[in-house]
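Pair request: fold both.
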Amino acid sequence: MNAQIERLEFSKRLQQALHNAEQSPNSPTQLAREFNVRFAGQPVTVHAARKWLQGESIPTQEKLRALAEWLDVPTDWLRFGSIDANLSKTQSSTLSSLDTKAIATLQQLDEHHKMLAHEFIRMLSRISKKK
């Protein structure tokens, strides 16, 4: 995949993760502010956040990990877009066969239905945490 497409695909995943986390996917100012509150390293500028959202750059691995943790998504998914292809052996050994089947099924869906499934799972997770 060429670098420009890779950056644009990252941008789409970042915007989707922001939306799913009920953050604005269109505000570099809000992204920079919320990210910097959670990140112990060198803060990012609004300009850098805009470049992430516009698909002009991809953050460093350290910043990717912080973004993924904040947005509650796998770091590999945020960076590369794949869930199961990039699971470490430790991660995959903790998945049940039902989890693996669910991930495989999810990956077969079109983007719209994937987003609906993610929203549904997030809703169930919130309900579960409140109990």
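--- second member of the pair ---
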Amino acid sequence: MFNTFTHGYALLIGVGESAYPKWSLPVTVKDIQAIRDILIDPNFCAYPNNQQHIRLLNNSSATRRDILDGLTWLNNQAYADPQATVIVYYSGHGWLDQATQLYYLIPHDVKPFDIPNSALSASDFTNGLRQINSQRLLVIIDCCHAEGIATAKKTQTAIKLPSNFIPTTIPKSFLEDLKQGQGRAVFSSCRGKQSSWIRPDDLMSIYTYHLVEALKGAGNQPDDQVVRLSNLMNHLSKSVPENAHTLCQAEQIPFFETATEDFTVALLRGNKGVLKEEGNTETTQNDETSQQLTEGNGDTNLTINGDGNRTNIGGRKIEIKQARDIKINL
């Protein structure tokens, strides 16, 4: 009999259809449906399958007001459940106003000629998240840029934006604001001037595809019973860059911003874990990547080779190199 991750809550936002049709992103609806399916699957993440724990916002329900109301709903759930683990996932456009340097998430009801007053500003989104008084909060943002869609599908041209606006990844200052507070972690699908790419089969974004894999245990070790932040990071940091290069001939390196403990985000295989004999979880090593798990004298080191950034989870130092390298000292 499977357990249930009773303290898990998620708000999944995939804007999808825009009131201004040229800005629609249908694949984002597929993204959140795929994440919802794995979260509520009793054989995997085992979140309770009801409106008290999982809510989806897409198409006409992904308005600016609906998103802010969704964050208020999460705050109420966290208030009623002191042990709550909360996930907020956004898949859609993210644009920067170069004149003001303000960043906006683009909801369903955006007005093309009045983006500042109709889109969801980074500050309003951040303030909504700060309401949520949960012990553990993971924010995941997968902003699908126009050029990524055009190149992946080979049939579209990049959409035209109003003057001063450019599609871009989340500014670092926005990410730093989001992570403020205890038990906060922020994941972004790419960094710098990179795009978040969609798979050529139009199944979902590359990032979401591998996030679902990670929630199924692709980043875990044999005998693990839960999926933690570090497990997600391990898998995303390796698989997303590799597949963006292979499928789209592009660079896409996920970004992780966290200064908290390595908390649990879901059950693994309904809390039954990954069995040692399952071949897809065995540790492998080659010239490009290696994975090691060693234990001794109370210390545990997990290393995946690559090149680039450093962060930490609580007292655990994490080094991410080229988004393939993660080093965790426990």
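Observation on the second member. The helical segments are 27-40, 64-80, 115-118, 122-130, 146-153, 172-178, 206-215, 229-248.
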